[in-house]
């Protein structure tokens, strides 16, 4: 599914448009389930989005983030996800306190790999 999401985001970007990454994800999910003839409801889509907000981090992540923080490394996130979505992910994973800043492509209405995303992220 993630390949479909990335493909859709790329096509939207090439066309010079922008859409919320979460919406692209839901659209990709609907496309894939329709192709496979799987019946899903709006409630199913909501459950998938909710589950993605609460995914656990890999076992070694907290320790490595702690180590970086102890060494004075300033950390930020730069994501294609909407700000509220990534904030929920980091809070649910109990790692948001490691990051000094959370940036989303939402601010510039373009996806990663576009130069303006990285210009926006410059500190």
Report on the structure:
- The chain has six helices and two strands.
- It is mainly α and 123 residues long.
- It has a two-stranded parallel sheet.
- Helix 1 crosses helix 2.
The portion of residues assigned to helices is: 40-55%
Mean pLDDT: 90
- Tell me which CATH architecture applies here: 3-Layer(aba) Sandwich
Low-confidence stretches: none
Domains, number = 1
Portion of residues in beta strands equals: 5-15%
In this structure, how is the largest beta sheet organized? Answer: 2 strands, parallel
Please give the oligomerization state of what you see.
single chain
Distance between the termini: 33 Å
Task: Briefly summarize what is shown.
The protein is mainly alpha-helical and 123 residues long.
Overview features:
single chain, 123 residues, two-stranded parallel ribbon, 2 strands
Ordered list of secondary-structure elements with their pairings:
Elements: H1 2-14, H2 21-35, H3 42-53, H4 61-70, E1 76-79, H5 83-92, E2 101-104, H6 115-121
Parallel strand pairs: 1-2
Helix pairs in contact: 1-2
């Amino acid at each position: 599914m993630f390949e479909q999401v990335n493909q859709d985001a790329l096509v939207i970007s090439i066309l010079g448009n922008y859409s919320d990454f979460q919406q692209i994800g839901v659209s990709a999910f609907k496309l894939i389930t329709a192709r496979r003839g799987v019946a899903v409801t709006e409630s199913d889509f909501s459950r998938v989005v909710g589950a993605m907000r609460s995914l656990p981090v890999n076992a070694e992540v907290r320790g490595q983030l702690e180590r970086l923080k102890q060494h004075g490394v300033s950390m930020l996130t730069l994501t294609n996800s909407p700000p509220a979505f990534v904030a929920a992910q980091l809070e649910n994973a109990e790692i948001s306190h490691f990051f000094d800043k959370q940036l989303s492509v939402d601010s510039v209405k373009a996806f990663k790999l576009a130069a303006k995303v990285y210009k926006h992220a410059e500190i």
